[in-house]
Amino acid sequence: MSRLESAMMILMDSFDKYSGTEGNKSTLSKSELKTMMEKELPTFMKGAKNQAEVDKLMKALDHNGDSEVDFNEFIILIGAMTCACHDLCPKK
């Protein structure tokens, strides 16, 4: 697999690892999302340790209003974070 294909597999595996530990296996609940972000994105979570910030993020991600984050909504989060990092990181 190419590096990009491997990255896609890692994203899918990461989502699947945390989704469904409580309830729906194809979505992340608020607590699953928080756990995933704490374990997989610790650098980004340094400033968002309180529940109010997780609630705000969840509301922003939950485009269909079902109080869960599906894979499409998860990819929007990862894409937005990647864009922010790309804009802030020095270019080669």
From TrEMBL:
Highest classification ranks of the organism: Eukaryota, Metazoa, Chordata, Craniata, Vertebrata
Domain EF-hand: 49-84
Alphabetized Pfam families for the sequence: S_100
InterPro entries per record: EF-hand-dom_pair, EF_hand_dom, S-100_dom, S100/CaBP7/8-like_CS, S100_Ca-bd_sub
SMART domains the record matches: S_100
Source taxon at top rank: Eukaryota
Keywords: Calcium, Metal-binding, Repeat
CDD domains xref list: S-100
Designated name of the protein: EF-hand domain-containing protein
PROSITE patterns recorded: EF_HAND_2, S100_CABP
GO molecular function (one): calcium-dependent protein binding
GO cellular component, one term: cytoplasm
Biological process, per Gene Ontology: endothelial cell migration
